Structures are given as structure tokens and as C-alpha cells.
Description:
By secondary structure, this protein is an alpha/beta fold. The chain is built from 9 helices and 12 strands.
Amino acid sequence: MTDRTVDVDGRRVALRLTGSQQPAVVMLSSAGGGHDQWEQLRELLGDTLCVSYGRPDIDGSDPLNSDLQSVPRTASWAADHLHQLLRAAEIGPPYVLVGCSIGGWIADQFTAAWPSEVAGLVQIDPTFITPIPRIEWNGTFEDADGGLTFSEPACRTELEANVPPPPQRAAIISKAFGTVPLDVIERVWQPLTPFEVDHGWRACQVEWARRLHAVHIAATTAGHHVQIDQPELVAFAIRQVLAAARTGTDLALDPSDVAAAGGTLLP
């Protein structure tokens, strides 16, 4: 394991690298997340070159200047930042991008901007594109105290406008039903019932699969961070994408293999 910092626009960005075999697997964390979201996955991927990083003020990356912290950002800004980081770190394409939650937005916009550099894409329970009916999330949220402030409306508008060409190899991995804690539903998802939350979120995941012409896998027990709750399932999907990328073929999964890894292949 190698931890280092790389200069991007005059600020240090923290990188963690393991393995060496390419294509590189570039891991994009959920809001506020860093290297710790990916540690189990690194072990399972062995010699594969795995890259995680901290967005501003996460895992040792420098914070933004105070006058920049409240400026609303979009996923494309974060995608451009990642692209600069990979260039500065001399980690060349092609990449297999693995995005979790809000990281899925960033991976999507990276693919839209640099499709020829993306050998494959694995989206782990990505944040919705089209809002779930009766839920209005139209504000901003902070990635970290001294980090990015994302604008949800601007991000969704951008996703609608900048649709990437479907990658040849893409997989969506969705959380299992019944894994959103009731207190979270009461705090965040009102007025929806648990049933409506599960089915509304799954509909958004189906939308992602259609957007990217991706295979769609449902976890059997994992919550939102599937790479933590069921890392074997995510590792399986990444290995399949890597194998297809190395042979220049399309991604095709056997339902029985998916089941053995802890998932269900959805139509």
C-alpha cells in the first residue's frame, strides 16, 4: 500500500494505491467518504491497481479556501478534478471507474467527458437521477467541513444534459430491500413508507441501468454501501468488468455466478 499526495491546482490531494495490474480501478466514494470505504475491496482485488483519493478536506487532502467552500459545485467539477489528479499522479487510462452513491454522479460525468478513457464502469447504489415522487431534495449538501458543497438541482440538471455514451462494460449494483433504517426513513424520506422508499429507490436504479445499458445486480443483504456490507459481490462485478476490458469483449454475466457471489441478476 502506498499513500502519497499530489498537487492539483495548488492543493494537496491524498491518494492511496495498491497493486499494479492495469487497467486501474479508480474508486469514487460516497459523500464525505474516503479510503476506508474501499479497504475490504482492495484485499479482494489483489494485484489489481486500485486507486482511492480524498476530495477536498477528506483523508488528508487540503481543504478549499474558505471563500470557495460554499460555492455550489456539480459532479462535472469533481470529475474534472479527478481527471487532473490522475494526470498529475501519472496514472494513465483506460480506467475502470467504481462509484458509490454521489460518487456515481462523478463517475458518470467523467465518462461523459472522457469516454475513450473509461474501460468499464461499476456503479454501487448510485444516487438517483430523477427525483423519487413526493420527495423534494433541492438544496445543497457539504462533502466535508472544508470541502465541496454540491448543488443537487444543478447536479441533476447536468446529468440530464450530459448523458455519456453507454460504456461497453457497465454494471449497476443496488442495495437490498429493507436495508434503510426506520429512523433514517423518518428523518429523511418522509412522507414515504418503507415500501415506497425501497421501490422508489429501486426504480431509480433501473433508470441508471437503462441510462448506461448496464447489467443490473441486486445485493441480497447489503445496505447502501454494498462494498462494505458485501464486498465479495462488488469484487466479483469488478473482476468481470476487468476481464472483459482486457479481452476487448462485452460484459456478460451468468445468473448462477452472480448468485454465488451474493446477488441477483435483474432483467
